[in-house]
Amino acid sequence: MNRIRILIPLGLLLCMSAIQAQTVNFNLTGTITPGVCRFTANNVDLGTYASTLFTGSYVTPFVDVPVTSQGCDPLVTSVHMRVTGTADVANAALFRGVTGIGIELQRKSPVLAVVPAGTNVDFTPVASGGTYLFQARFSQSAPTVAAGTVSSPVTINITYN
């Protein structure tokens, strides 16, 4: 009988050790993104002019340079543009054109000169189809000018919040 008394608690003890517990941990993840904006810009033709017009400090009329909004999320409260490019050899405030003729670029309103070394331009977001307006024109940068075709890349890095 003593053997049965010893075996029963021992058997129960062995059965209890077979019961196990486990804790499982996991993370809930996700990302909340800020509002999104989309923009487009097309090449802009500043026109065709005879090199003989540039006889001193000649400038051509301004031509609009629109950066078009494809829409911004309503959470976006400001649009920041950093404009850069290659400077004219004779005048670092102008973008590269042809010898003696650079390109002047500015925000249209309120007027703000944009220089190739980098200019920050801030805007309030506009609705889809609206524009962020710049304007550009040829500007004589040296006494001697050359004829030629102009292609001056301008880079706009856009951030918004």
Structure, explained:
It is a single chain. This protein is mainly β and 161 residues long. The protein has a single domain, classed as Sandwich (Immunoglobulin-like), CATH 2.60.40. The protein contains one helix and nine strands, in the order αβββββββββ. Strands 1, 2, 4, 5, 6 and 8 form a six-stranded antiparallel sheet that branches. A three-stranded antiparallel sheet has the order 7-3-9, with no helix packed on it. The model has no long low-confidence stretch (mean pLDDT 90).
| Class from secondary-structure proportions | mainly beta
Mean pLDDT: 90
Series of secondary-structure elements, N-terminal to C-terminal = HEEEEEEEEE
For the report, how would you describe the main beta sheet? 6 strands, antiparallel
Shape: elongated
- Give the helix level as a range of percent: under 10%
Number of helices: 1
Ranges where pLDDT stays below 50 over 5 or more residues in a row are none
- Oligomer state equals single chain
Number of strands: 9
CATH topology: Immunoglobulin-like
Number of domains: 1
The first-level CATH class is given as Mainly Beta
Q: Quote the distance from N terminus to C terminus.
A: 83 Å
- The CATH architecture term is Sandwich
